[in-house]
Amino acid sequence: MHIAVAGNIGSGKTTLTELLSKHYGWETHYEDVDQNPYLNDFYEDMQRWSFNLQVYYLNSRFTQIQEIKQTDKMVIQDRTIYEDAFIFAPNLHSMGLMTTRDFENYFSLFSLIESFISAPDLLIYLRASVPTLVNQIQKRGRNYEESIRLDYLKRLNERYEAWISTYDKGKILIVDVDNNNYHENQEDLGKIIHAIDTEINGLF
């Protein structure tokens, strides 16, 4: 079974992925942050590196999905391939940080890849307000994230909400991060686990 965690930058995807994999004994697939050769360059010059970064992520996540498909274990994935295609790339394009030519090329490649993959059995969406995102980004203190602008996070949030409102590829569980402190509160984490158990039982 394939569980995926979706959400904006700073919403707590990696933390929740870790906590759930520990609780259930699930195999994890994380977003490639430390080894990503484009990330630092991208945050310094988004216009120059946006296309390269998005193609890198597309390749990385497609590889992950192929690995997930080949295992018979329960797997939890930190961020989905859909978020790049429906949120990050279109956002860069609309902000003038990716050319129309590059965006169309990217999306054509995504559409081809999408025809070879299946959606997660359960998607967990972490909904968080911009102040919560900013607070959590500052807490983790990644140097390259210091230059992220508030309007960038706000635009991404709007796109996430639009995407989630029409998501129909499988089961979905929405977690309100503003009112669920699962990384510090066991009771809050328990609520998420109970909701996941209910959804998973419904899959069998």
What attributes characterize this protein structure?
Rossmann fold; five-stranded parallel β-sheet; 58% helix; alpha/beta; 204 residues
- Order of SSEs: EHEHHEHHEHHEH
- Which stretches are poorly predicted, pLDDT < 50 over at least 5 residues? none
Oligomeric state of the chains? Answer: single chain
| The CATH class | Alpha Beta
What features would you describe in this structure?
The protein is α/β, with parallel strands linked by helices and 204 residues long. Helix content is 58%, strand content 12%. The protein has helices at residues 13-24, 39-44, 46-70, 81-94, 100-114, 130-140, 150-166, 186-203, and strands at residues 2-7, 27-29, 75-78, 122-127, 171-176. Strands 2-3-1-4-5 form a 5-stranded parallel β-sheet, sandwiched between helices. Helix 4 runs antiparallel to helix 5 and helix 4 (81-94) crosses helix 7. The longest helix has 25 residues, at 46-70. The chain is globular. The mean pLDDT is 92.
Please specify the SSE layout and strand pairing:
Elements: E1 2-7, H1 13-24, E2 27-29, H2 39-44, H3 46-70, E3 75-78, H4 81-94, H5 100-114, E4 122-127, H6 130-140, H7 150-166, E5 171-176, H8 186-203
Parallel strand pairs: 1-3, 1-4, 2-3, 4-5
Helix pairs in contact: 3-4, 3-5, 4-5, 4-7
